[in-house]
Amino acid sequence: MDMGRRFGFDKVLFFIFLILIMAGVLLVFDASGALATKKYLSPFHFLFNQFGGAVASLVLLLAFISLRTPLYENKFFVGGLLGLTYLLLVLCFAMPETAGTHRWLNVAGVRFQPSELAKLSVILFLAGYIQRFRDRLGELKVFLPAAAVLFSAVLLILLEPDFGTAALLFLLGALVLYLGGARMIHFAVLGAAAIPTFFIFLVIADYRIIRVIEFFTHNKDLAKASFQVTQSKIAVAAGGLIGVSLGEGTQKLFFLPCPHTDFIFAVIAEEMGLLGALAVLALFAIAVWRGLAISMKASTLASQLIAAGFTFLLGLQALINVTVVLGLSPAKGVPLPLISFGRSSLVCSVLAVAVLLHISKRKAEARDER
């Protein structure tokens, strides 16, 4: 019975994410070999980093789901995690600029992106806050503190600047508040602060507004701003139905920018074709279905909102990444979860998966005890 409870989590969800993580390590090596050789004189540079992040993430996942106590519902743990997130976001501005931004902490050669942690900590805080004040969330004075936490985290990320992540976090936070029972009229207050803020940060960066204008007008004079998306669409078209075969793609050879990060889905489409791309999308779709099923069956309101928030986090992030790759939306710099290169994104995505599995295990334990 103890062994059954220890491994009583959602097996389908676990194996889907295991497949995605393993595929991610292989695809990062495939997409980054030429770039790593040129930049670091070794084709294995990004592979070793991604593999190390994958191993560490899986160890954390197994350790987390074996816990008996749901730390994600402990207000002291969640409050401490949120405070740490704010501290790390602020410390980013004390770091030297990287590519004109302050998105990373760099300590002893190890880089970490706190905005990835913000996605988790803000959702956890909002879910716990809603459970504690569920009967009073319709009051503006109760809604405002939750909205202030969300908006302040979004603002710090906008200042880095990271427009795509900030927009995703705002959308997820608003969704959790809505699912928790917040009144629609209160979203007008949140929107009154958020819409002008996002608009200002959109127009003050020339490259952002140019991308948006080019996307809607297809102005050839602005085509350089959409160079990444143009090369991505070339890769997708070259793949056809079954692809050119794994490792044989050419767009990753310095034609397609960021082939191992934001545009790794283009490499998948070129080398594995439409069938391979659909297979990846199917895995994410099944994961979203299982995650929502876990949310609906969770034993507490906080767990329901956390499971829904983390499921939408992974699903929406994948959807945004794919739409950018296919040219269906302007470039945003949002990675494909569990597959794109990036240890911060990988570790935080796996932690979200670990929480989902732990919630599913608690439901199984409750059923066994009955």
Outline the biggest β-sheet: 2 strands, antiparallel
- What is the number of beta strands? 2
Residue windows where pLDDT falls under 50 for at least 5 positions: none
- Annotation field: number of helices: 13
Computed Rg: 21 Å
Average pLDDT, rounded to a whole number, is: 90
What does this 3D model show about the protein?
With 370 residues, the protein is mostly helical. The chain has a domain at 1-66 and 232-365. It is built from 13 helices and two strands; from the N terminus they run ααααββααααααααα. It has a two-stranded antiparallel ribbon with strand order 1-2. The two termini are 13 Å apart.
Keywords:
370 residues; 13 helices; two-stranded antiparallel sheet; globular; single chain; mainly alpha
Write the layout of secondary structure elements.
Layout: H1 2-6, H2 11-40, H3 45-65, H4 75-91, E1 105-107, E2 110-112, H5 114-132, H6 140-159, H7 163-179, H8 184-203, H9 206-217, H10 227-239, H11 264-297, H12 301-325, H13 343-369
Antiparallel strand pairs: 1-2
Helix pairs in contact: 2-3, 2-11, 2-13, 3-13, 4-5, 5-6, 5-7, 5-12, 5-13, 6-7, 6-8, 7-8, 7-12, 10-11, 11-12, 11-13, 12-13
